[in-house]
Amino acid sequence: MFSKTCEYAIRAMIFIGQQSMKGERTGIKQVVQGIDCPEHFIAKILQEMVKRGLLLSIKGPNGGFYMEKTQLKYTLADVVRAVDGDKIFSGCGLGLAQCSEIKPCPIHKEFKKIRNEMHDMLCNARLGEFAEQLDNNLSFLKR
User: Fold this and answer.
1) pTM (2 d.p.)
2) Over the range 71-82, which residues count as b (16 or more CB within 10 Å of their CB) and which as e?
């Protein structure tokens, strides 16, 4: 459902959230190890997250990426919108440009239900909550 970029962004944001809750800043290499992703790819993603205000960073030997309480309240929907836009929340399941209530595609009705449920779930899923789950070993980000 999500682009590979979006998948990496979500995983990285949750990982950095977990580290931030411990009072730590996280470097690129730590993120790569923590979520098992390509280094060059995640660096670009994290720069974009900083640019959009979803993540903070400090340069230098004691620097890294981190979140304050404000960023931990962002939802997965915020991350998805920042990376993939709103298309996943409003687009056609078959990718048709003209799909609508008046002129629906063959899976319009069923896909609309799934899309709405996913939207609600992502809007109610806060980064801080997932970071806590990681801390309590209730979930994981890499195998």
Assistant:
1) 0.88
2) bbebbbbbbbbb
